[in-house]
Amino acid sequence: DAGVIQSPRHEVTEMGQEVTLRCKPISGHNSLFWYRQTMMRGLELLIYFNNNVPIDDSGMPEDRFSAKMPNASFSTLKIQPSEPRDSAVYFCASSFLIAHLSPNEQFFGPGTRLTVL
Amino acid sequence: GQNIDQPTEMTATEGAIVQINCTYQTSGFNGLFWYQQHAGEAPTFLSYNVLDGLEEKGRFSSFLSRSKGYSYLLLKELQMKDSASYLCAYTNAGKSTFGDGTTLTVKP
Fold first, then answer.
1. For position B108, what pLDDT does the model report?
2. Which of B2, B62, B84, B85 shows its CA 20 to 30 Å from the CA of A37?
């Protein structure tokens, strides 16, 4: 398996522009997670999906952020409009959750390094 | 991370043993995970504990005490390549909350 795939790997954009990050989870996994990592705030969960349904989006910073998972093999995280404080590494991770309360090892993608000027 | 604490930095010598501690507070708990993250790379899974006690996995072991909200990661026979950040995370209802990570530097 190729693992979790993210694109682009690097993105540099100007403030106010729309940014779309993409993720393909590991085939057969039923849970997908979007994280943001910065030096100041560490690794933060933004949103997670189970069976393509958003379960917890309490970590989404504000309305400028939105995430979708139209099918089991694809998810997007969109920022519109982007701001300099959104600069971070955004990781997508997937796992196979057997039951809602079971522990789940997560497999991380390589991340997208976003710079907003 | 929120309600989960670990030391910011540690230094150890090649060939030695190092213990990285993690404490957490949460009302719901399904497991405690340890991940390794090298600079510029993604976190990778190392070990997890669901029940109290020690889980051994080669040079790495992890311990959990649920009553104390405490875990540690033990790294034996340290190698230079073990220099990395080590993240602990607790899971609750499918969601993981990560600590800020402990940056371990292994010196010759």
1. 95
2. B62
Rounded to whole angstroms, the Cα distance separating A36 from A45 reads 7
pLDDT digits (tens, 9 = 90+) for B20-31: 999 999 988 889
- State the Cα–Cα distance between residues A30 and B63, nearest whole angstrom: 28
| Chain A positions in Cβ-Cβ contact with residue B102 (cut-off 8 Å) | none
Closest CA to A45 of A2, A53, B69, A55: A55
**Tokens 């990778």 belong to residue:** B44
Spatial distance between the Cα atoms of A4 and A24, rounded to a whole number of angstroms: 6
Residues of A in contact with B97 (CB under 8 A): 45
Of A42, A97, A109, nearest to B94 by CB-CB distance is A97
- Asked if omega into A70 is within 30° of 0 (cis), the reply is no
The reply to whether residue A101 touches residue B93, judged by beta carbons under 8 angstroms, is yes
Contact assignment for B42 to A91 by CB distance below 8 Å: yes
Residue B1 — pLDDT band, cuts 50, 70, 90? Answer: very low
With bands split at pLDDT 50, 70 and 90, how would you rate the model's confidence at B105? very high
Q: Is the pLDDT of residue B93 over 90?
A: no
> What is the spatial distance between Cα A3 and Cα A8, in angstroms, rounded to a whole number?
15
**Residue carrying structure tokens 């522990």:** A103
Residues 58-87 of A with CB under 8 A from B: none
Angstroms from B33 CA to nearest CA on chain A: 8
Provide the mean pLDDT of chain A: 93
